[in-house]
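Example 3.2
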Amino acid sequence: MQEEQLQKYLDLLPLAVIAFIASTLLTPLVGALAKRFKFIDLPKEKRPRTDKSLSQRIHKGIKLRLGGLGVLLPFIILVLSQASNNPQIMGMIAGLIVLLVIGALDDKYELSAKYQFLGQIIAALIVILSGVTITQLDIAGQRLKFDSFISVWNLGLFEYTFIFPGAIITLFWILTIINAINWMCGIDAIGEVMTFIASLTTMLLAIRADQPELALISAMLGASILGYLPFNFPPSKIISGTGGTTGYGFILAVLAVMSGSKITSAIMILSLPLIDMIWVMVFRFLNLKEVPFLKRPFMGGNVHLHHRIMALGFTQIQTLFIEMTLIALISLIAFYFGGFSDSFLILVSIAVLLIFVFTAITLAAKRKQTAKPKEPESKPPIIDNGPTPEEKYAY
């Protein structure tokens, strides 16, 4: 029985390795493309004073955008090679392509929030029309059903089964997760780490629920993220851009719905960005009284969790480790309620403990560095010989 269970994991390994290698090799090429065609993110020092996003800008230098293509292009190709007969998965890929196109335009021209939101709605509707709908939700032993009204619509090329209020709830769910992950991506690698841990957790839950197709998709997403992380770890060489950050949340949201009753586990896994999003929206509703009520949630600001942690004096890397520890602890709780064996929970607990130790070491190093008095030093004369070859050709 154990050999059979182990084989389920081994079956995922070949395509996961391919996704990892493809992402690792493709990301530098995407970086070169972004540099060539100016897909860049300017720091606040280089932005006009009228820019509404100044308060939330953390990067000190120019950053290359479009990095999400390095993750999602291999993912799309591999998914198409494995699940081209599944209309729901095809709907997910079609919606993802819409987000990548809108994201690329935003990375280049910085579209207004309404155009980005319109693209998100279109992507979500494509998925819903492909048959992805939340029909029930299990919470604390209670089953809530969302199929009080069902109607079959003939749309010419295909028939769509409209389920109310399930379709409306699904639309709200996808848009919420897209923006929760997107808003979380304010510092290097945090959204990517969140996506990696969430995809890994979804993979394990899918294997336990005997959903091999969803497990494979989750494994490929996690492996693609892992291949990209060395380029995105602070200080990053490239950032995911709008297409990447919205695409990550979109995939996680759709996989959660496709997993059926496991959506409650997905809510638990994604609780950190969800709570952060709720906190920010409540803050904006209560404090931005000079802004029209419906526009308040979409105004920029520096009240996200990573902003508040960094306001305490922590660096980007330290903030990343703190949030990563919180995410890992939440995933451990999801595993516990997912009904995994004690031995498996022990292994996960060890991994979470190691993350906690690394975080503690990082924070202790910061404390020691802060306590150490700085000695005055004489600065040698600065000789500018121009950029080094590494700086000249770095992507």
